[in-house]
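User: Quick sanity check before I run a bigger batch. Here is a single chain. Can you write out its predicted 3D structure?
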Amino acid sequence: MNYRVQPTAQVDESAEIGAGSSVWELAQIREGARLGEGCVIGRGAYVGTGVRMGDNCKLQNYALVYEPAELGDGVFIGPAVVLTNDHNPRSVAPDGTQKRGGDWEAVGVKIADGASLGARSVCVAPVRIGRWSMVAAGAGVTKDVPDFALVVGVPARQIGWVGKAGGKLVEREAGLWECPQTGELYDEKDDLLAERAG
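Assistant: Done. Predicted structure follows.
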């Protein structure tokens, strides 16, 4: 075994855990989940059935990642974050009978490479969180987040752009943004941001 699982964690035998990954106390990894290499699953975190995670992801303590979520490489999920999976949740059907697993269709949250979700934020599926974007602590995400966007509040709204280093970008001229930490440049066009080629 080339990964670590603490004795109090529950990892289903059908789950795949990548090399160098760590699963800490009281975490639960469900059936068919697949974690990439170098992932860290914090205390009490939950990874649902069939969830897909890329390499070098971090799920902090008590994060809840419900199926069919998909996480790219290098995704950060802060403490107590929730990724939901039911757009119209109900415990019972209209006739009052309790709903079971087959009585609804799960919808997922998709998180692209490098994105970060702050502590206690909630993503209401189905939504896509863009590459290298940042969701502030406590935010409630109800619509897609563009690449490199910084979103805050409930419901989450965009207040700026962030670079790969995580810092807020500075607009140097109309449509040209710079990372004050790395000097990397980004071009904005039609309310979308992309790294400047070269």
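The chain has two domains: 4-88+105-162, 163-198.

User: Great, the batch can go ahead then.
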